[in-house]
Write a structure and sequence with these properties.
The structure holds two protein chains of two kinds. Chain A has one domain (1-52). Helix content of chain A is 32%, strand content 0%. Chain A contains three helices and no strands. Chain A has helices spanning 22-32, 48-51, 53-56. Chain B is an alpha+beta fold. Chain B folds into five domains: 2-176, Rossmann fold (3-Layer(aba) Sandwich), CATH 3.40.50; 192-280, Translation factors (Elongation Factor Tu (Ef-tu), domain 3, Beta Barrel), CATH 2.40.30.10; 297-365, Alpha-Beta Plaits; 373-515, Ribosomal Protein S5, domain 2 (2-Layer Sandwich); 518-600, Alpha-Beta Plaits (2-Layer Sandwich), CATH 3.30.70.240. In chain B, the strands form ten sheets. Chain B has a six-stranded antiparallel beta sheet with strand order 15-14-20-11-12-19, with no helix packed on it. In chain B, β35 (547-554) and β36 (557-565) form a beta hairpin. In chain B, α3 (97-115) packs across α5 (133-145). The longest helix of chain B is centred in the first third of the chain and has 19 residues, at 97-115. Chain B is elongated. Classes of the chains: A mainly alpha, B alpha+beta. At the A-B interface, α1, α2 and α3 of A face β1, α1, α6, β11 and β17 of B. Bound molecules: guanosine-5'-triphosphate. Guanosine-5'-triphosphate (GTP) sits between chains A (16, 18-24, 42-43) and B (32-33, 35-36, 156-158).
Chain lengths: 59, 615
């Protein structure tokens, strides 16, 4: 994978009320950034962020 | 900041934006779900402007909202973007004639706001009345980095409309990491530069299936290469970062190098914890810790079967290292394990995992309250301990007087007891600060050798035992002066144990006559509540024996300051949340101890007596 120089890095956090679309936006951004080639959906629990949820949710 | 166009600004929006403001983080506003049939652009924009005021700068507005949402006008590019599918395929068009005026108007406001951030731009703007796209970008970039402006974008994350454009903006205008000084614990700061010493900040650790412990870090300075050695500033432990990964959810991709500003993770480090800094050089940097919010919900926890206790302890410690807002503490005083977190729901998720993932049945119950006992007036007691049932006998008699320790009032030697004057000869004084707060002063006032000096420590020991397990409710006692002024010995039967018991019981009897009081911990509670929920929150507080100390208002919120007994705060976060639909927040910090009211004291005494009988 490419090494990104500091000037090309942006530290971004997606924040918003529950259900505003954080997970969906992250997924679409990863798709647009070509990190993933298919978008998962929140409903089918197939998004990238959802997959780390078990780890994120303690233990 | 993502805003749901069905709802406009919501509770979470308000709470999160306060955090962003506090930490001086720039915000971009993304109005999402514009394709939803219930989406409302006008009311959403209105609520955003009401909440964030003049900082909001509209970069885009939609042509049509609801299921027909497929295009928006971008007033920075002065173009219309049209989307043909749900995969982000977009076309650029000229702005339709009927929207031109509005676009021009927004563009003008945008140029003006952009110019305000830079003097040179301001001059250009005055001279020419316009700015180029490049100039606007420059102005926005400065304004954004300084949190002076909040650019607003239109999105459907679901249909991939506007997402790419938002990303372009973040890339072109959003600040680089090297725009920010990074604070160290010692107050100095370090630039986020690839030329500095390599230094990593651990912002999260997790245990992931099939991998084990994963340490997530941000490169604060320098560059990290594979197999680099670093030292943990806190523990001095040397770690080798043998592999570096870039993370996207479950997916981890190996990197050979990663530079300042980037985030990554590594595995199999020996012992790193969240908030620690790892340095690959002589400078012992320690970056400022992430401050986790104080706990809002406390509960006592135990395993249903005793053999699970040890495993439970390990799991709770693990839970804490993965999620530092879960806190675990064993209270020696209460003899309970106290678990605290951000709310009842937070704790229930943990409970669910313990039950289902780890198959441990647990019980949650309200924590005991660490009461204290003290006295309010002078009293005396005589106690004779004697035992003569075969073998060596036991004999000890102690006469003592007790009085409260009052701040700034030294011990006197004249007392009135039942109308009679008692004058003591204060010989030796010992003073102790109790582990649980408050004092014990112990005076030897024995005259004429009524009790040998060698028994004085035993009497003190007896008193101490009762201080630790107070006469009223078994809670710690505090702030008492004890004067041992008389007694009797037996030439054969007197020994240490006899005097310990006599001292202990004399103290207990005197205590009960000395206007004993139970003290309870009081907390300073600060509630931030939307003005329209004020009444409910106030009357609930009053039911919790709160003393309201002050009120003030700030942007549609009221701040209530109150002193509330800990005993009344159980599950407060849950109640407050339901009274305000989650729109209020609160903090509580320990203040001091205060006497409980008479009715509460009666209740506590009865409870303790009933319990004593059971045992
Ligand atoms: N119509 C429409 N629905 C959306 C859009 N973005 C998200 N949703 C839906 O809104 C719901 C919530 O989206 P999420 O992406 O899970 O939102 P979130 O902010 O991550 O939610 P929490 O993690 O629960 O706070 C899901 O049902 C999504 O499919 C959008 O642009 N348009």
């Amino acid at each position: 994978m490419k090494v990104y120089p500091t000037q090309n890095i942006r530290n971004v956090v997606l924040i918003g009320n529950t259900k505003s679309g954080k997970t969906t936006l992250a997924e679409t951004m990863l798709f647009e950034g070509k990190v993933i080639d298919r978008r998962g959906s929140v409903e089918a629990k197939t998004t990238v962020s959802e997959s780390i949820l078990p780890a994120r949710m303690i233990l | 900041m993502i805003i749901n166009a069905q709802q406009g600004v919501e509770v979470g929006t308000e709470i999160l934006s306060r955090y962003a403001e506090k930490h001086s983080k720039p915000l971009i506003i993304a109005v999402n779900q514009l394709d939803h049939e219930k989406a409302n652009w006008e009311s959403t924009l209105e609520s955003v402007k009401q909440t964030f005021g003049k900082k909001v700068v509209v970069i885009q507005f939609p042509v049509e909202v609801g299921p027909a949402f497929n295009s928006f006008i971008d007033v920075l590019k002065m173009k219309m973007y049209l989307f043909k599918d749900e995969n982000g395929t977009r076309e650029e068009h000229d702005i339709p004639a009927n929207l031109k005026d509005q676009a021009d108007e927004y563009h003008q406001i945008l140029a003006e706001l952009a110019a305000e951030n830079d003097e040179a731009l301001m001059e250009t703007f005055f001279d020419k009345g316009v700015l180029t796209e490049e100039e606007i970008r420059k102005g926005l970039s400065i304004g954004l980095a300084q949190c002076e402006i909040m650019p607003l974008f239109c999105l459907s994350a679901k249909k991939d409309i506007g997402v790419k454009r938002l990303m372009e903006f973040i890339i072109n205008v959003g600040p680089n990491p090297d725009k920010y000084e990074q604070k160290l614990k010692n107050g100095e700061s370090v630039p986020c530069s690839v030329n500095g010493q390599t230094s990593l900040f651990i912002y999260k650790t997790a245990i992931e299936p099939h991998i084990g412990e994963v340490s997530y870090f941000r490169v604060m300075s320098g560059k990290l290469t594979e197999a680099m050695d670093v030292v943990n500033h806190e523990t001095g432990t040397k770690e080798r970062i043998s592999t570096i990964f870039a993370v996207a959810g479950k997916k981890k991709e190996k990197l050979t190098e990663i530079v300042a500003g980037d985030i990554g993770c590594s595995v199999k480090l020996k012992s790193v914890k969240t908030n620690q800094t790892l340095n690959a050089g002589p400078k012992e940097w320690a970056f400022e810790s992430i401050v986790f919010p104080p706990s809002k919900f406390r509960t006592a926890i135990k395993a249903k079967v005793e053999k699970d206790e040890e495993k439970l302890g390990e799991l709770l410690n693990k839970a804490h290292s993965e999620d530092p807002t879960i806190r675990v503490e064993y209270s020696k005083e209460l003899k309970q394990t106290i678990l605290s977190g951000q709310g009842e729901h937070h704790i229930n998720i943990l409970k669910w995992h313990l039950n289902n993932t780890h198959k441990i049945e647990i019980e949650l119950f309200s924590p005991k309250i660490p009461y204290r006992e003290t006295i309010t007036k002078v009293a005396t007691a005589d106690y004779r301990h004697r035992k003569q049932s075969g073998g060596a006998g036991q004999f000890g008699e102690v006469h003592l007087l007790i009085e409260p320790v009052l701040e700034g009032v030294p011990a006197g030697n004249r007392f009135k007891i039942d109308g009679k004057e008692l004058v003591l000869n204060l010989k030796g004084k010992e003073e102790f600060t109790m582990d649980w707060g408050g004092k014990l002063e112990y005076y030897n006032c024995i005259v004429g050798g009524a009790i040998d000096a060698r028994f004085m420590p035993a009497i003190l020991k007896g008193v101490m035992e009762k201080m630790e397990e107070g006469p009223l409710t078994g809670s710690y006692a505090r702030d008492i002066r004890v004067f041992v002024y008389d007694g009797k010995m037996h030439p054969v039967d007197s020994n240490e144990i006899s005097f310990k018991l006599a001292g202990r019981n004399a103290f207990k009897e005197a205590f009960k006559k000395a206007g004993p009081k139970i003290m309870e911990p009081i907390y300073n509670v600060e509630v931030l509540v939307p003005s329209d929920c004020m009444g409910d929150v106030m009357s609930d507080l009053q039911n919790r024996r709160a003393m309201i100390e002050g009120m003030s208002s700030d942007k549609g919120f009221e701040i209530i300051k109150a002193r509330v007994p800990l005993a009344e705060m159980h599950k407060y976060s849950t109640t407050l949340s339901s009274l305000t639909s989650g729109r209020a927040t609160f903090t509580m910090t320990y203040a001091d101890y205060q006497q409980v009211p008479a009715d509460v004291q009666d209740k506590l005494l009865k409870e303790y007596e009933a319990n004593e009988k059971d045992e």
